[in-house]
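hey so u asked for the seq, here:
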Amino acid sequence: MHLSRRSLLGSSAVLGATTALPLTAARAQTPAIKVGVLTDMSGPYQDLAGPGSIAATQLVASEFMAANPGARVEIVSADHQNKADIAAGTARQWFDRDGVDVIIDLSNSAVALAVAGIGKEKNKAVIATGAASSDLSGRACNTNTIHWVYDTYMLAKSTGGAMVKAGGDSWFFVTADYAFGHALERDVSDFVRNAGGRVVGSVRTPFPGTTDFSAFLIRAQASGAKVLGLANAGTDTTNCIKQVKEFGLTMKVAGLLVFLSDVHALGLDVCQGLILSESFYWDQNDRTRAFSARYSPRMQGKRPSMVQAGNYSCVLHYLKAAKEMGYAAAKADGAGAIAQMKKMPADDDCFGAGIIREDGRKIHPSYLFEVKKPSESKGPYDYYKTLASTPAEEAFRPIGAGVCPLVKA
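ran it, structure tokens below
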């Protein structure tokens, strides 16, 4: 198993927090629930997931144990390096040797799809918060996996649909060449065509490792398309946005998966006016602000991304389900723990009320945001204004349209 130094530090930090809690008689006799945060600690997704994902998981573990004196929660973490084989090897070792009960985050769709299969094989729980491919609740769904936070269908419907309605009826895609990018381009293309628009071209960029997008952007400009669809995320997206501005491209840019950390890194001068979709924003309401106030001191004042919020949310719901069915029973039966999570309504400070469907899709509202002008912002991380919201029951793909084998016709 590959453990980066930063991953080891993250693991040590939560163990310290765990042992600092009083070891009551009830807690001493309770089997520990072990959560594995398999994330990107060193690549393009480290800011939107990475150390912040570990911090969010540490926070919910500490809060849950404080509220439930009989509970024990331990956290381990590792860097998947955006490689499915490394993620698969880590997952097998965690499940077979290290007693991990649930793996979360998985901030890469190829990684998530690989680990979801291993979770099914080993009868362990897998919850993808950082992966986007809608296949996780479609053709690749299984009894041991839940897909939290967002997916390519939601992003395509919210951002892609809005752009076509606003006149952006011809598209060119710059697509990260792996499962996530392919799924996002596919889903957005469907919405564009169904709305009467057209896709005039696309290029697929090697992932990870591409930093110079100039040749791809020049091809996009030459296509005559009105909209440049960025079917990528993390530093790939920020590099594209910076280079669009540097080269003076006149196309409208659709950031199909943009995070708060991306806007913070680029600044409002570059991002102002950008349209994007997210399912969580720290300043959305009193509950999201309360969660962020508890999280930010652990991350030197940084506000959480929707992936980091998703880790808090999904682990809280998993722990509630484990308590309901009995911690030993949850450890012994990953599919049973997932089934229990589906039976219980979810509710937390990050996403509010929600449900988990039969296909493993966690359901909650999505929001269409516009990035503020510098003059509109009151300070760091005050970056979004809400343009529209999509109700939970409409935000994600209809359950019958995903060809999930768990869904009865």
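Residues 5-150+284-364 form a domain with the Rossmann fold fold (CATH 3.40.50.2300). The chain has two domains: 5-150+284-364, 153-280+366-389.
lmk if thats what u needed
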